[in-house]
Amino acid sequence: MEAALAPESWHAAWKAVVANGGAPGIDGMRCEQLKEHLQQHGEAIAAKLQAGRYTPSPVKRVTIPKPGGGERLLGIPTVVDRFVQQLLLQALTPLYEPRFSARSYGFRPGRSAHEAVRQAQACVREGKRYVVDLDIEKFFDRVNHRGGGGE
């Protein structure tokens, strides 16, 4: 948590959230309002994070059309929650990224689907008989986000 709460981490997280943009969450706050919000409420946010009492807001649910038909359900976190997620991502990535398999490509920094395909092709050329591609479609829609037992 110390790394996440360092001033340089806050600045980098703020820059990343503003650069990424995106729609407001349920509170209606836009990315451009984050700096002022952090100036006013940053100490309280840091205290909650330090104490393990930070609670994210509910996500705003929206649907967007899929290119092939149908709709995709999106959850849009508040800008503050995106900021906190970015803080934690920056602190945790250096700790956990080195532990992942070199042949894992999904949602990894500096890796792409094109690289995954090239890796699979290289495995076939090496004589490997199987390539595993997992897509856990709608998995996170089914995760119990409230905690405890059940679905």
Largest sheet: 2 strands, antiparallel
Individual helix count: 5
Shape: globular
> In order across it, which strands form the biggest sheet?
1-2
- Which percent bin holds the helix content? 40-55%
Average pLDDT metric: 90
- The helix/strand order is HHHEEHH
Low-pLDDT runs of 5+ residues are: none
Number of strands: 2
How much of the polypeptide forms β-strand, as a percent range?
A: 5-15%
Structural description of this entry:
The chain is mainly alpha-helical and 151 residues long. The chain is built from 5 helices and 2 strands. Strand 1 (60-65) and strand 2 form a beta hairpin. Helix 2 (7-20) packs across helix 4 (79-96).
Secondary-structure map:
Layout: H1 2-5, H2 7-20, H3 34-51, E1 60-65, E2 71-76, H4 79-96, H5 113-125
Antiparallel strand pairs: 1-2
Helix pairs in contact: 2-4
Defining key terms:
mainly alpha, 2 strands, globular, 151 residues, two-stranded antiparallel ribbon
